[in-house]
Amino acid sequence: MTLPTLDDLDVSDRTVLVRSDLNVPLSSGTITDDFRIQASLPTIQVLRDRRAKVVVCSHLGRPRGYDESLSMAPVAARLGELGNFPVVATSAVVGPEVKRAIAESGHDAVVVLENTRFEHGEVTNDEVLAAAFAELGEVFVNDAFGTAHRAHASNVGVARRLRSAAGLLLEAEIVAFQELLHDSDHPYVVVLGGAKVSDKLAVMKNLLPKVDMMLVGGGMCFTLLAASGYEVGDSLVEEPMLDEVRDLLQGQDGGKILLPADFVVADSFTEDASNDLAPGTAIPEHTMGLDIGPDATAQFSNVIVAAERVFWNGPMGVFEWEAFRAGTAGVADAVASCNGFTVVGGGDSVAAIRMLGREKDASHVSSGGGAGLQYLEGKVLPGIAALEQWSNNA
């Protein structure tokens, strides 16, 4: 795939609308993880260095109309702090007031629009809203991989109306995920976790023929264990998925799937529940697996460290609770210790490797969860496809 990049755009003394992914977690109005803000900065800085006036737009959370608790104001302030440049935060998404704020802002300032999802037409890719976005800039840069799988007004609609290019982050994401789809370095290991196998069955099917081993933990692995005929106690099982999962396990590549050797189990889904260890093939009645056990952690880690390519998406247990975090932390440490090409995607996986302070030891830490999975499923991502029209005439 060849997309137009920043080098294909003349941005000097022009207003550039940038779609960033600044959808960061908030607690009582305070940002708890600014990873996505940090990831957005290189593109913004390059545009500023090239004398562009930068206007940034992003969504935050999933509001249905205006919601003061999801205002971009604290995000805009943090962006200015990290980038060490003045920021003008608008009180609206589009319209005359926003145009005035852009026109009156100093050339050195970055303008940050209010939450794009405060406009109902954002998620439906409304043509009127897309046209209003296009009136705010002379060229468009999409740097939001995290929303590339959504056809929204601020990424797809505006790209059809303004000369467009991929930002540095979006470009780096595509390069990394294309590498994961190529049949190159082996052993190739995929590590999947998270709650539901239904969320990742498509990517499992698409990647299994390409990988040497697929390690499955988290809540999703219990559906696989149940489909194999093992006792899983009260662990999470998606009953409607059993037949399809059984077919996958019994298929040509099913032998590549490695399930945990043991689990940390508890008698209730609570943070302070008493816990014990149980074998992976026989979780006791009235208990549930909430993390992979030490044997499984060692088992998975040994495979990961020896790999030439690794993709990891999803925690191994209830990562939010310290008692059930060791498996996820162990996998994060193994990925960071691997000398091969490693990609970490998904919020909890990224949080885990950042918690260890080892995100720089991964080849690529992705800003997108669902977008990365859909890319690996082989799907066309609308936000990326919208840029392709400019490939030959940027």
Kindly list the characteristics that best describe this protein.
single chain; 394 residues; alpha/beta; Rossmann fold; 6-stranded parallel sheet; 14 helices; 34% helix; elongated
Structure, explained:
The protein is α/β, with parallel strands linked by helices and 394 residues long. It folds into two domains: 6-165, Rossmann fold, CATH 3.40.50; 176-376, Phosphoglycerate kinase, N-terminal domain (Rossmann fold, 3-Layer(aba) Sandwich), CATH 3.40.50. The chain has 14 helices and 19 strands. The protein has helices spanning 35-49, 73-83, 96-104, 127-134, 153-157, 168-181, 201-207, 221-227, 242-250, 294-305, 326-337, 347-355, 370-376, 382-388; strands spanning 15-19, 26-27, 30-31, 53-57, 87-89, 110-112, 139-142, 164-166, 188-192, 213-216, 231-232, 257-258, 262-266, 275-279, 282-283, 288-292, 309-313, 341-345, 364-365. The strands form five sheets. It has a six-stranded parallel sheet. A six-stranded parallel sheet has the order 12-10-9-17-18-19, with helices on both faces. Helix 7 links the parallel strand 9 and strand 10 (213-216). Helix 10 runs parallel beside helix 11 (326-337). It is elongated, with a radius of gyration of 22 Å. The two termini are 15 Å apart. The model has no long low-confidence stretch (mean pLDDT 95).
